[in-house]
Design a protein that fits this description.
Layout: E1 9-14, H1 19-28, E2 32-34, E3 37-43, E4 48-54, E5 59-63, H2 69-73, E6 78-81, E7 83-84, E8 87-88, E9 90-91, H3 93-105, E10 123-126, E11 135-138, E12 146-153, E13 156-163, E14 167-169
Antiparallel strand pairs: 1-5, 1-6, 1-9, 2-5, 3-4, 7-8, 10-11, 10-14, 11-12, 12-13
Length: 176
């Protein structure tokens, strides 16, 4: 087992659109980092192109000794560690592995959206794929085939871009 495999993973909050630059800087400095990327088709006025985009906007993960906390904060583009009660939160290895599996299995879904009506703020359960069973809240819906679901992890809500066909509504109990 490599020495870095014994170190914990931490989530970093990054300046908007700087995820790839910070990831490259971390690797160049000798850190093990993970930037979950998914391929998506983007439309420009003259063409369609497949591009890799971060799964979690403004977040990436680093495996590091907590003694390097301030060194990591000095990297251009890093805003802060994700914290809970002012302490950097360790991201469990199984969550990192689930995210990696999700990214490896990710495909843009071409199926027709389900007929169940969904609305902003609604609780939904992911019903298939490596994130199956996770429950989150819907962000504003602006796409007929894909949704952004906010999953609570490490004390924060992280956005996941997912196909409509992979979620089902969770009906919250109302008090009568």
């Amino acid at each position: 087992m490599a020495e870095s495999d014994k170190l914990p993973w931490y989530a970093l909050y990054i300046h908007s659109r700087a995820e790839k630059k910070v990831y490259t800087r971390l690797l160049a400095m000798g850190y093990e980092a993970y930037l979950p990327l998914i391929a998506q088709m983007k439309k420009w006025s003259d063409r369609m192109k497949k591009v890799e985009e971060p799964l979690f906007k403004s977040y990436l993960f680093v495996r590091a000794d907590i003694k390097k906390y301030f060194d990591i904060l000095e990297i251009p583009g890093v805003v802060r560690f994700v914290t809970f009660e002012k302490k950097a939160v360790v991201v469990p290895e199984n969550q990192i592995n689930a995210i990696k599996k999700y990214c490896n299995d990710y495909t843009e879904d071409e199926h027709e959206p389900q007929e169940v009506e969904l609305h902003e703020g609604q609780l939904v359960r992911i019903v298939s794929g490596p994130m199956s069973g996770l429950i989150g809240r819907l962000a504003p819906i602006d796409n007929k085939k894909r949704l952004i679901v906010y999953i609570e992890s490490v004390g924060h809500y992280l956005p996941i871009n997912i196909s409509r066909t992979k979620v089902e509504p969770v009906y919250e109990k109302t008090e009568s």
